[in-house]
């Protein structure tokens, strides 16, 4: 009876398939007030005046408030939180739910209306008249770094922090001084809009029975939100209940503490009425945080054979207008991965964070690690060309452990990789892709001068996930821990109930957790109920992000099950008058070694633990155990992806012909779910490479805020994918599991761009910015052909 | 204005503001919240329903335009005894959903696509047919697989 490892169908699905998934906007309560947001159309301006009179008189309007009014009412005690003060001197301008006297990005809230209907709130918001005095906007990271304007007029610089990770500067300089080959490349990580299909929304409901207030939010982090809402509003933590109902995707965009959340809970608490808001898609593009936004410079030093000697990285990171929950920490999450899967004796990384007058950045699927993976994997291709060997060979020559199995290996960025085995993983990917045949076909097309040329790109990535050992986070100045909590109880009826601090939004936790618990307790997975995402039911938790749920939360559940079984064993020994040491536990049955007829089912023991009529002396009734697991180390999944593109040289169009992914996330609990995670992740990274970019004009206006012109891929743009696995169990946890939620995104942008550049290499093209749109590809081809002019 | 329509086999009559979008009418007035809203430009397809047998993005119609129409939403697709429609079952079987938010619209669009192509669809036709429906979780791989398992023909 092994549920673990089986592709069990998801228990989450039936409700979602018939329209019974309850997302925030689906929940209606009597007497609710709708918030309508009045947002700044200016990227940077002083607020001269706000006239709310017309809005106040509109039908169905309850109230209209400006920032200073809400401040005066005591709606908040503190600005919105940033939990990651990456340096002691980091600049962190106060970020209130509403602008006080100066706006710092288009979409910042300057006033709110409360009305009795969805449409009424939107109408009334239109009636608020705001006078602005424009200030010079800082509309790009380069302008922030090099220009005169400052994004916050009270500061004389846009630089927020400088963060170095240079373990041995002398060794790094020596590596470059002694190298046979050096390459230097600059990459742009364009801003991306996360665009989870469910827009964010909130509903705060004061309890009619007492002083508490319940906040429903489309959030990945109800537990963190509860703590931060208490700290920000002054409502006692014990009076706040946060519920993340069905949540329609997150990808990091729902990992924040947003103005609307603080406004809703605080207004509901003050007014005694339910307060709600649901963002429109276009509103989301301006107001919900964005991802990426970095200028990267990477230099590699190598010997004559292409073996790496050193890696030096600098990035300028775009914070946007404010530090949100983990804005400044995102580039740092990547800092440790710029040497990728390679043995690099000397390493140095520096990051400067800059403010701009653009929407704040923060976590987006992979958060810092896709950027790092992109830089090293693109640079390795450039180095391969410099050395004159193939992209597969440059990787083989540099893999950690020589491509052989290793465990607990310290790398120059000071991390200890749990386990890796890169050589066979590459072999498998190349074989599945038919690599030699692809190269032959590429050569044939080139020789024939065909209009549609092939490009083949490969990536071997590693990611750091399973966030995170609390001490490691403390060492990085992060303001919280990285543990996860689980409670497992075997009920009197023999069914199990699991309370998980992880908070799913599409990952299938209920199914996966039931598989772990079913096997551990020897009961059918169908007999396991999983409770989560409600701080009243699951008071302890640190939620879902950073591919942490299984490697931290799942491990906590398994450990709690072990404790349940251990207690049950003591009861079984007592009941059967045997020594606990003589008991075996298999398939839910305790039996006495050598006396196979003496046995007791764990469900029977659960009932006995409930009645407590005959428990061992001093034992507490009931079978319920809890574990808070703080991982001793991160986990480091890896894999090799091979992508083939076809470029139409006449139109510049890039078509994905095939995508092969061989991933290694250690032991798998539900391979169907793992594969689904990879599919989605891969397409999100492909989208960065080929289509997606949040485009801004020089005044700081987002020019493509809707799904008509921000190109989230549709089914026609991507092919079906080929996925396979190698299995190298983690040494960081007893389940041997790693993580799979972000892996696809961490690898695929580089794989695609390596393929695009490979296709264009006969023209001497060595690099191209993302996204590789038809226009950009066409221009690159023609500039290369014409020696610089399109 | 008064509008009356058959929704999942039941006649529903209500007073609406003339500007009310059909999707808001279904969700806020009739309580049929299975039909989701994912954008404001008719790009994402999360609100896809059937109007007189054809798939329609319900954010592109006013409620008053549906006066007299026969509407099926995701709540009306499974049989009365709760058995899933073959397309719903295929999505579950093929892991064609993760967060589930695009799913009602995707399933409604897919059932309509299959009905319009009784001779069967190939992968390219499925992808073309679902072009107006966006999913951010699945990369479409398993959605396409699910639709082909129902409407792929012989």
Q: Could you tell me how far the N terminus lies from the C terminus of chain B, measured between alpha carbons in angstroms?
A: 49 Å
Distance from first to last alpha carbon of chain A? 65 Å
The CATH topology of the largest domain in chain B is Ubiquitin-like (UB roll)
**How many domains is the backbone of chain A divided into?**
3
Rg for CA atoms of chain A: 28 Å
Q: If classified by CATH, what would the architecture of the largest domain in chain A be?
A: 2-Layer Sandwich
The biggest beta sheet of chain B is recorded as: 5 strands, mixed
Structural class of chain B: alpha+beta
Q: Write the CATH homologous superfamily of the largest domain in chain B.
A: Beta-grasp domain
Largest sheet of chain A: 7 strands, mixed
Q: What's the gyration radius of chain B in Å?
A: 15 Å
Which regions of chain A contain 5 or more consecutive residues with pLDDT less than 50?
A: none
CATH third-tier fold name of the largest domain in chain A = Aldehyde Oxidoreductase, domain 4
Describe this structure in words.
The complex is a heterodimer of chains A (790) and B (154). Helices cover 30% and strands 24% of the residues of chain A. Chain A has 790 residues and is an alpha+beta fold. Chain A has 3 domains: 192 residues, Aldehyde Oxidoreductase, domain 3, CATH 3.90.1170.50; 327 residues, Aldehyde Oxidoreductase, domain 4, CATH 3.30.365; 147 residues, Aldehyde oxidase/xanthine dehydrogenase, molybdopterin binding domain (Aldehyde Oxidoreductase, domain 4), CATH 3.30.365. Chain A starts with 12 loop residues before the first helix and ends in a 5-residue tail after the last helix. The mean pLDDT of chain A is 96. Chain A is built from 21 helices and 28 strands. Chain A has a 7-stranded mixed β-sheet with strand order 3-5-1-12-9-10-11, with helices on both faces. Chain B is of the alpha+beta class and 154 residues long. Chain B folds into 2 domains: 75 residues, Ubiquitin-like (UB roll), CATH 3.10.20; 66 residues, DNA polymerase, domain 1 (Orthogonal Bundle), CATH 1.10.150. Chain B contains 5 helices and 5 strands, in the order E-E-H-E-E-E-H-H-H-H. In chain B, a hairpin with a 2-residue loop joins strand 3 and strand 4. In chain B, helix 2 crosses helix 5 and helix 3 runs parallel beside helix 5. The longest helix of chain B is centred in the C-terminal third of the chain and has 14 residues. Chain B is globular. The termini of chain B are far apart. At the A-B interface, helix 1 and helix 19 of A face helix 1, helix 2, helix 3, helix 4 and helix 5 of B.
């Amino acid at each position: 009876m092994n549920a673990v490892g089986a592709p069990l169908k998801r228990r989450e699905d039936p409700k979602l398939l018939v329209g019974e998934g309850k997302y925030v906007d689906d929940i209606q309560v009597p007497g609710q007030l709708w918030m309508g947001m009045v947002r700044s159309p200016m990227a940077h301006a002083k607020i001269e005046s706000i006239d709310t009179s017309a809005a106040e008189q509109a039908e169905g309007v309850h109230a209209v408030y400006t920032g200073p009014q809400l401040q005066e009412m005591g709606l908040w005690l503190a600005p919105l939180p940033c939990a990651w003060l990456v340096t002691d001197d980091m600049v962190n301008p106060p970020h209130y739910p509403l602008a006080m006297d100066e706006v710092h990005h288009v979409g910042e809230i300057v006033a709110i209306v409360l009305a009795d209907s969805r449409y009424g709130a939107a109408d009334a918001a239109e009636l608020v008249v705001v006078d602005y005095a424009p200030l010079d906007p800082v509309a790009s990271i380069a302008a922030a770094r090099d220009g005169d304007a400052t994004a916050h007029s009270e500061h004389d610089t846009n630089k927020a922090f400088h963060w170095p990770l240079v373990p041995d500067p002398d060794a790094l300089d020596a590596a470059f001084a002694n190298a046979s080959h050096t390459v230097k490349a600059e990459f742009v990580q364009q801003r991306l809009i996360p665009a989870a299909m469910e827009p964010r929304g909130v509903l705060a409901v004061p309890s009619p029975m007492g002083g508490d207030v319940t906040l429903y939010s489309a959030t990945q982090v109800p537990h963190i939100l509860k703590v931060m809402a208490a700290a920000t509003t002054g409502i006692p933590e014990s009076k706040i209940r946060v519920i993340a109902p069905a949540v329609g995707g997150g990808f990091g965009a729902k990992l924040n503490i947003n103005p609307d959340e603080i406004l809703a809970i605080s207004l509901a608490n003050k007014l005694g009425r339910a307060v709600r808001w649901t963002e429109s898609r276009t509103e989301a593009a301006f107001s919900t945080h964005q991802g990426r936004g970095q200028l990267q410079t990477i230099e590699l030093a190598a010997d004559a054979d292409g073996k790496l000697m050193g890696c030096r990285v600098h990035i300028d990171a775009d914070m946007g207008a404010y530090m949100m929950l983990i804005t400044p920490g995102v580039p740092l999450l990547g800092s440790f991965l710029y040497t990728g899967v390679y043995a690099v004796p000397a390493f140095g990384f520096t990051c400067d964070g800059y403010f701009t007058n653009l929407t704040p950045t923060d976590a987006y699927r992979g958060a810092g690690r896709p950027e790092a993976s992109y830089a090293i994997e693109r640079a390795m291709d450039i180095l391969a060309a410099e050395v004159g060997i193939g992209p597969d060979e440059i990787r083989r020559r540099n893999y950690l452990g020589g491509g052989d199995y290793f465990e607990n290996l310290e790398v120059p960025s000071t991390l200890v990789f749990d386990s890796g085995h890169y050589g066979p993983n590459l072999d498998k990917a190349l074989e599945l892709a038919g690599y030699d045949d692809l190269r032959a076909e590429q050569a044939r097309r080139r020789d024939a001068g065909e209009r549609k040329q092939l490009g083949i790109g490969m990536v071997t990535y590693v990611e750091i996930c399973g966030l995170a050992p609390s001490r490691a986070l403390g060492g990085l100045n992060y303001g919280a821990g990285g543990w996860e909590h689980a409670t497992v109880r075997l009920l009197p009826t023999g069914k199990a109930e699991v309370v998980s601090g992880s908070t799913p939004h599409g990952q299938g936790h209920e199914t996966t957790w039931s598989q772990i618990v079913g096997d551990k307790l020897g009961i059918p997975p169908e007999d396991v109920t999983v409770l989560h995402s409600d701080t009243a039911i699951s008071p302890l938790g640190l939620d879902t992000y950073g591919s942490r749920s299984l490697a931290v939360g799942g491990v906590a559940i398994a450990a709690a099950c072990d404790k349940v079984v251990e207690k049950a064993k003591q009861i079984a020994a007592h009941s059967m008058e045997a020594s606990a040491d003589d008991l075996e536990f298999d398939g839910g049955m305790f039996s006495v070694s050598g006396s196979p007829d003496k046995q007791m089912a764990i469900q029977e023991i659960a009932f006995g633990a409930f009645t407590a009529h005959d428990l061992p002396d001093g034992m507490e009734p009931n079978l319920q155990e809890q574990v808070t697991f703080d991982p001793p180390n991160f986990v480091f999944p890896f894999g090799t992806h091979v992508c083939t593109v076809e470029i139409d040289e006449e139109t510049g169009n890039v078509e994905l012909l095939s995508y092969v992914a061989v991933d290694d996330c250690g032991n798998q609990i539900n391979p169907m779910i793992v594969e689904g995670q990879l599919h989605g992740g891969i397409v999100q990274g492909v989208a960065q490479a080929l289509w997606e970019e949040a485009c801004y004009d020089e005044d700081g206006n987002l020019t493509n805020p809707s799904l008509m012109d921000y190109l989230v891929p549709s089914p026609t743009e991507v092919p079906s994918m080929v996925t396979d696995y190698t299995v190298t169990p983690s040494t960081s946890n007893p389940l041997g599991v790693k993580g799979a939620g972000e892996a696809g995104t961490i690898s695929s942008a580089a794989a695609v761009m390596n393929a695009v550049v490979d296709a264009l290499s006969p023209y001497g093209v060595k690099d191209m910015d993302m996204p590789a749109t038809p226009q950009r590809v066409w221009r690159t081809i023609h500039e290369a052909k014409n020696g610089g002019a399109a | 204005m008064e509008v009356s329509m058959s929704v999942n086999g039941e006649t529903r009559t209500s007073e609406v503001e003339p500007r009310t979008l059909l999707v808001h009418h279904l969700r806020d007035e009739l309580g049929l919240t299975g039909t989701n809203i994912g954008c404001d430009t008719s790009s994402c397809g999360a609100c896809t329903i059937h109007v007189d047998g054809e798939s329609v993005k319900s954010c592109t119609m006013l409620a008053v335009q549906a006066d007299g129409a026969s509407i099926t939403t995701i709540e009306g697709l499974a049989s009365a005894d709760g058995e899933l429609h073959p397309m719903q079952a295929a999505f579950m079987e093929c892991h064609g959903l993760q967060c589930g938010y695009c799913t009602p619209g995707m399933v409604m669009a897919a059932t309509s696509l299959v009905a319009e192509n009784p001779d069967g669809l190939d992968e390219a036709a499925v992808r073309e047919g679902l072009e107006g429906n966006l999913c951010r979780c699945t990369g479409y791989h398993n959605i396409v697989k699910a639709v082909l398992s129902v409407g792929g023909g012989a």
